[in-house]
Structures are given as structure tokens and as C-alpha cells.
Amino acid sequence: MRLAPQPSAQPLRLVVVLLLTTAAGASPMLTPGCPDKCVCDEQLVVQCAGQQLSTFPSNVPLATRQLIISNNRIGELPALWLNYLSDLVYLDCSNNSLTEISESTFGNLRKLAYLDLSFNTLTRIADRTFGPLATLVMLRMTDNPGLSEVHPEAFMENAALQVLDMSRNNLTVLNITTLIALPVLRSLGLSGNPWTCEFYIYIYIYKHIQYEKYIYSHLHTYCIYVYEGQRLGELGMELRTLCHQTLDSLDYLFFVLIGFVIFAAGTVSAWVMGTVMVFYERYIKKKSQQPDTDEEDETSDQNNTSRAQSDLGLIPRGTAYFVPPGGSIL
Ligand SMILES: *[C@@H]1O[C@H](CO)[C@@H](O)[C@H](O)[C@H]1NC(C)=O
Ligand SMILES: *[C@@H]1O[C@H](CO)[C@@H](O)[C@H](O)[C@H]1NC(C)=O
Ligand SMILES: *[C@@H]1O[C@H](CO)[C@@H](O)[C@H](O)[C@H]1NC(C)=O
Hints:
This protein is an alpha/beta fold. It has a domain at about 40-195: Leucine-rich repeat, LRR (right-handed beta-alpha superhelix). The chain has helices spanning about 10-25, 80, 175-180, 210-225, 230-245, 250-290, 290-310, and strands at about 40, 45, 65-70, 90, 115, 125, 140, 150, 165, 185-190. The strands form two sheets. It has an eight-stranded mixed β-sheet with strand order 1-2-3-4-5-7-9-10, with no helix packed on it. β1 (about 40) and β2 (about 45) form a beta hairpin. α4 (about 210-225) packs antiparallel against α5. It is elongated, with a radius of gyration of 41 Å. The chain binds 2-acetamido-2-deoxy-beta-D-glucopyranose (3 copies).
């Protein structure tokens, strides 16, 4: 009968492995095993994507810098295990079944720069959740269909945050007071949320002072309105006018350009028409000066004359007459 490894046997095993690997001349932190169903490489990357894991992989090497556990069914990030991985820089937990993240989950991940929590079932983000992640640069938290509450101070301490994507969640309101204050935030994705009013919040904010002020101030206004508990029916028109008033300089440039294009098109077509007319007139004149045309004209004149005369009963119909050039029928 084989004995399953006991939890208490773990440290001993680790020591043995360490001794063995040190003897073999390899880096001791690299090789204390690799979790089941995962692939570990020498760049300290542990790849466990799409393995139908329902729990966080155990025995992740302590020196791991990149951990990818996306496309599984993991329901919980155990704070205790995760916080051993204090060298973690990159953590991809997208497409799992995470419903909650406790305040201690990321407590020790002080080097984490990239965190992906997209495609989970999170419902709320508390204020301290991301607090310890002082070096976090990019946070993706999209496509959590039940995520309707993000604490106003959730990102207050993420001073390195540059990209925050919260698209396609269930957010109806968002207090962005602390987001505005983030020093290097340059992109904020908020599209595809059921915002409580018709204000079209599709925003990628770039650190472009004018633009930023304009977007922020209106987002802010909007949030405050909603927070103050006003009913949407009362707000609808007001916000709509607000939206329509707020054209930025690019919009104006666009209108000016369109105006110019229409003006130019009008001028050009008028010029073309004029030219065509002039040429047409010249052509007609030229044509009327040619002898052929003269004869034709005369013949038709003569026809007219003869018709007129036959109408008067002077000349029997159907009779041909020879008319000498310059002559006339008497
Ligand atoms: C999520 O993971 C499942 C299982 O691996 C996969 O079939 C599905 O396409 C993934 N969805 C997304 C949006 O990546
Ligand atoms: C989104 O939030 C609303 C309440 O704001 C709730 O009624 C609805 O069920 C939520 N949607 C999902 C998918 O959880
Ligand atoms: C938004 O959050 C800030 C910071 O927590 C708070 O001081 C402010 O009162 C909040 N605004 C609203 C409208 O709730």
C-alpha cells in the first residue's frame, strides 16, 4: 500500500528536493516540482490554462513570476497559498468561477504588475481588495456579468495603475473620485455596462489634459446626480442636453471640415457646370457658322415656308419644288 503524502511530510519533501537539486547544480527555487496538469519552465512561468481545474493548483513553485490559471473552473483564490508567491509579477485568472476576492487575497503580492480577473462571476469589489498592489500597472476586470459594485476607494492605493478595464460588467454607477486622482492612469475602459442613464459612457481616457477634464467632469457630474438618488426620468433630458453640448475640439474640427468639403464641392460643381455651359455655347455657335448647317437650316426654313404656304392652300400638298439657292417661291 502506498502512502499518500501527508501535509506534515511537505517540508521534509521540500528539503529533500532542495538538497537533490542543489547537488545537481540547478537553481534551488526552480524545481520543487510543478503542479499537476501545469507546465513550468525555466523562466519561472507556470502555465495551467484550460486544464479544467476546480481548485487553485497546489505546489506552485515559490519563485514563480508568471502564473496562468485562465480557462478553468477555479472558484476561489486561497489567500494563504497565493501569498507565498511573493515574486509574482503576472497573474492571469481570467475565465474562471471566482465569485469573491477577499481583502487578504493579494496581501503579499507586492511585485504584481499584471492582473486579469476577466470572465469570472465577481459581484463586488471591496475597498481594500487591491490595496497592497502598489506596483500594479494593468488590471483587467471585464465580462463579470454580475459585478455591480466597485467601492469608490478600491483603486486608491494603486498608484502605478496605467490601464484599468472594467468593460462589460453590471455597473450602473461608479464614483470615479479616486480614479481621477491616480497619477498615471491613462486608459479606463467602461463600455458595455448598464449605466443608469443614457449618457453614453464609452471612454478610453487618455492623459490629455483638455480631453481628460472634459470627460471626467461630466462623468463626475453624472455619478453625483445618480448617487443623490434623483430619478432617471427627471434626469434624462438634462443629461441628454449635457451630452449634446459637449463637443470637443475634434468634433468642431470635423464640422468645420465637413462644412469646407460641402462648400468646396459646391464651388467645384458650379465651376464645372459653368465651363460646360460656356463650351456648349461655343460649340453651338461654331456649329451654326458651318455651311452644312446653313443649308440644313435653310431647308428647314423652306420646309416651314412651304408648309405654311400649303396650309394657306397655295401649293398642293405632296408637291416637290426646286428652290434655287437664295431664291424663293413666288
Ligand atoms: C473559457 O474556458 C472554457 C474552457 O476552457 C472555454 O471553452 C471557453 O472558450 C473560455 N471562454 C473564453 C471567453 O475564453
Ligand atoms: C445586474 O444588476 C441588476 C441590479 O442592478 C440585477 O437586477 C441583475 O440581476 C444583475 N445582472 C446579473 C447578470 O447579475
Ligand atoms: C466618491 O468617493 C469619494 C472618496 O471615497 C467620496 O469622498 C465622495 O463622497 C464620493 N462621492 C459620492 C457622490 O458618493
